[in-house]
Amino acid sequence: MRFIMKGLLRLFGWKLVGQLPDDKKYVVIFAPHTSNWDFVLMLMVRLCFKMKVAFLGKHTLFKPPFGWFFRMFGGIPVERSSANKVVDQVAEIIRQRNEIQFALAPEGTRSYKPYWKSGFYHIALKAEVPIVMTFLNSKTKEIGIGDLLRPSGNQEQDLDVIRAFYKDKTGIKPELASDIRFEEKP
User: Which GO terms describe its molecular function (predicted)?
Assistant: First the structure.
C-alpha cells in the first residue's frame, strides 16, 4: 500500500518530504486545512510514512455507511457541541499508551475561521508530548512531515514557532486559511 500511495502522490504531482521523529508519542497537526482533498492527501501521507494515527472526527462521520472506514483509520468520534473534557480525555489516552500519534487539524474546519482551535496545544502540554507539524503546500506541491515543537507552556512563544513554520505553506483554497492564533477568551 505504501508504494501505491507514493506512486499516486507522484502521479498527482505531489512531492513527499520529511521524516517522522524518533519519539513514540506525539500530537500531529495538519495545516493548512482548506479543502476536502486535504483529508484524502493526508491519509495517503499517513500510509506512505506507515503512521498509526488516531484522530478525532465529527460524530456524524462515523454513521453508516462510512463509519467503519473512519474507525479503521484510527478515528475517534466526538460530539463537538457537548461541553465535555475532550482535552483531558485525549491527554489521558496518550499518557496510557506506549506509542500513539494523535492527529488534529487545528483549523477544525475547511471554512474560514479567524483563529485556530487550541485543543492540540493543550493536549500536548497535558500529555507532555511534542507536536509534529505536518503540511501541504499547493504552491510547491509538497506534502509531508515538518518540524517538531516541544511546547514550552509559553503559548505566544510557541505560536510564533508554529507561525514561522507555516508562513510559506499554501492550502488548496488559500482564501480559507485561518490565522494562526487562538481564540481570545473573555
Answer: 1-acylglycerol-3-phosphate O-acyltransferase activity
The three cell numbers of residue 132 are: 509534529
Distance, CA of 46 to CA of 176 (rounded, Å): 24
Question: pTM for this one?
Answer: 0.86
Element holding 133 (H helix, E strand)? strand 131-137
* Element at 126 (helix H, strand E): helix 119-127
Q: Residue 116 forms beta bridges with which residues? A: 182
How many angstroms separate the CA atoms of 41 and 12, rounded?
10
| Model pLDDT, residue 80 | 60
pLDDT of residue 23: 94
Contact 52, 101 (CB under 8 A): yes
Percent of the chain with pLDDT over 70: 95
Q: Could you tell me which residues come within 8 angstroms of residue 90 by beta carbon, excluding any fewer than 6 positions away? A: 56, 102, 119, 123, 127
Q: Which three cell numbers stand for residue 163?
A: 507561525
- C-alpha grid cell, residue 1: 500500500
